[in-house]
Amino acid sequence: MLRLMQREIDWIVEALARDRTKTKSGLARALNIDKSGVSRMLRGERRLKFEEAQRAADYLGVNPGGGFAEDAADFQGEGPARRDDGTAPLYRATAGGNGLWVIDRSAVIERRPRAPEFAGAELVFGFYAPDDAMAPRFYTGEVVWTNPARPAAPGEDALLMEDPSDPATLNLYLCFLEKKTATQFSGVQYGNGEKVSAPARGWRAAHVYGRG
Asked: By CB neighbour count within 10 A (0-12 exposed, 13-18 middle, 19+ buried), where does 198 fall?
C-alpha cells in the first residue's frame, strides 16, 4: 500500500525538487491543510484527495499525474462494479441533449481486461459513446475510458462530471478542456462545435484515456 501511495504523489515530489520557489509551506496553504499534513502525504502516510490534486497542480504549475483517492466512495462501487480480477467495468450511457451524456451505473453491462495504462488507477471505468458529440475523437459506439480520480489538464480531453446526488446516475460532458480556473471549467465538443462549461464547485474535470 505504501508503494501505491508513493506513486500517487511522485509528481508533487518532483515538482517541488525542480522548482525551489515552491515550498511545503506554500503547498500546505494551497491545499488548506497544515504543513505536517503535507509531510505525511509526501511520506505516503496520507492519501491525496481529488480536489487536493487539482489545487496542488495549480500551485505547482504542472499537470497532475497518477491516480488519487476519492473524497467519497461515489465511484468505488460494490460487488460487480469493483472487484480485483484484472478487469474494469463498462456502463450504459445515453444522450441527454445539448451534448450532455447520462451514465447509468446501477449495473455493469460488460467487463474488459484492464489495459496496461490503467495500472494503479483503481477507479477507472468505461462506457459506450452514445452520439458523435466528440467525433472524430470518439464516434458513436466507441468505448470511452476515464479515471474519475485523476484530474484533467487544459489541452486534454476531459469528462466534466457532476458530483451525483444519485449514485446510480452520472451527468457529464465529454470535451476538449480549454480552460480550468478555481471557479469554472470550459471546453469544446468537436462533433457539434458546442462550447461547454461547468462550475468547479460540484463538478470535476476527469482524465480521459485514448480511444479504446
From this structure: buried
State how far the Cα of 98 lies from the Cα of 39, in Å rounded to an integer: 45
Strands, E assignment, the chain: 87-97, 100-104, 110-113, 125-128, 143-151, 157-162, 169-180, 184-188, 195-199, 203-208
Express each pLDDT in 77-90 by its tens digit: 433 445 556 788 99
What is the homologous superfamily of the domain 79-208 according to CATH?
Umud Fragment, subunit A (2.10.109.10)
CA-based diameter of the chain, in Å? Answer: 49
Domain layout of the chain by residue ranges: 2-60, 79-208
The dihedral region occupied by 113, where left means phi > 0, alpha psi between -120 and 50, and beta the remainder, is beta
For cell 465511484, what's the residue? Answer: 75
Note if the pTM is more than 0.70: no
